[in-house]
Amino acid sequence: MMRTIKTTCCLLVLCLLVGCAGSQGSAYEKDLLVVGFSQLGSESDWRIANTQSMTQAFSEENGYELLFDNAKQKQENQLIAVRNFILQGVDIIVLAPDAETGWDNVLSEAKAAGIPVIIVDREVSVEDESLYLSSVGSDFLKEGRLAVDWLEKELARQGRNDEEIKILHIKGTDGATAQLMRTKAIEDGVLRQSLWTISAQLSGDFTEAKGYEVVRDYLKNDQDIDVIYSENDNMTFGAMRALDEAGLSYGENGDVIIISFDAVREALEYCLEGKINLCVECNPLHGPRVDELIRQYESGAEIPKQTYVEETYFTRSNLSLEIICNREY
Fold it and tell me: Which of 35, 38, 208, 263 could be 279's S-S partner, Cβ–Cβ 3.0 to 4.6 Å?
């Protein structure tokens, strides 16, 4: 009986090994490039659109075999995923990092294995920049400065330059590039504008549920708000629900000016309705851009170390149903 169990186990192990070899073999036979993609999570509409763009770009039809891992917003999961990609001997690793720091060791391991790494969306802070091949994403500081410049002009248009302006700041995931740079922009703006005050900085973790929770709890004690500066649309949706429950008006004709980032379709719909004053675009469609970088790299061409995406902003005045309906995310 024991021998039968051992034989069965050996056969199962052999089948697994053959299956793995068969999977790799099929990629080699079809001359597919094996890409390991560590996505940080699925916390927002933006992230879902980003994942879809990446998986579509790395399809078999485009010459790829994709190994995908969702880290569920935990850096430790991403470290495990990257090390698994290294063990599996992928051709290239694509990493959408949860935070900027903590990557030196695992990227050193990838470099030692001869596997190039492309950073997508957020950035990494490492001592040796040769540990990654290239970085593709948004200029988050530029996005934040665009929002702050707009706010200055909007308050001037409303004749409120001599008023004290209280800003409720809803931050994204601490340590993420988007959070760091968008936060820097509003903090720099407050330093420049003597009558602006950040009443509170609440951590919404880029999710609607957390955005709602922290704003709801804040409004129980303080409802004196002139501006909400929310670092992504999903947190904004949560904040709007909390404002509704508290009986506070917002948007173009409301008591609270709302500034939001990402400009996903639902946020633009609210913007067209006048419920969100400003949507700053953050384009998630990085798949084709990363695909192009990989093809350039494979051909031996020199590729840029940093690529920023061209982005814009939306208010009710420059939006239309046509723009919203034609949007891919």
Answer: 263
